[in-house]
Amino acid sequence: MNLKIRTVNNGQIGIIELKSSLISEDIINELRDAVADFIEQGNKKLIIDLSKVNLINSIGLGSLISAYTTFTKSGGEIILTGVGKSVKNVFIITKLTEVFEICDKIDEAIKKFSLIKV
Question: pTM of the prediction?
Fold first, then answer.
């Protein structure tokens, strides 16, 4: 398994920590399944931690956009954390920094979600 899934704040905030490059179908499928599970559980706040992701391609970008679309259509909100320099450059070039909210650390995203009523 290339990702770690957990919840915080009494299960109100879901966290997916990716531990691999976002370039293969396997990790993309795991990410999609994890997002679907959080939606099924009624979770409305999701953090995707990219701190251990150093490589991303169009498949990986597509999977994050798909996760964002699916989750927000269900009434939820996503914050990305730990976006490294090379991955952030891809986000800037593709203008995805205008779509995704990005925080440096998981704790910062948790604090921000604590202020948001979803």
Answer: 0.90
CA atoms 71, 77, 82, 87: torsion sign: positive
Q: Which CATH class is domain 3-115?
A: alpha beta
Question: Which contiguous run of DSSP H or E holds residue 77?
Answer: strand 77-81
Question: Which portions of the chain are predicted below pLDDT 50?
Answer: 118
- Strands of the sheet containing 77-81, edge to edge, are 3-8, 13-18, 45-49, 77-81, 101-103
- pLDDT of 102: 96
Q: Map tokens 């009624």 to a residue.
A: 42
Contact between 96 and 87 (Cβ < 8 Å) = no
The count of residues in the chain is 118
Q: List the chain domain ranges.
A: 3-115
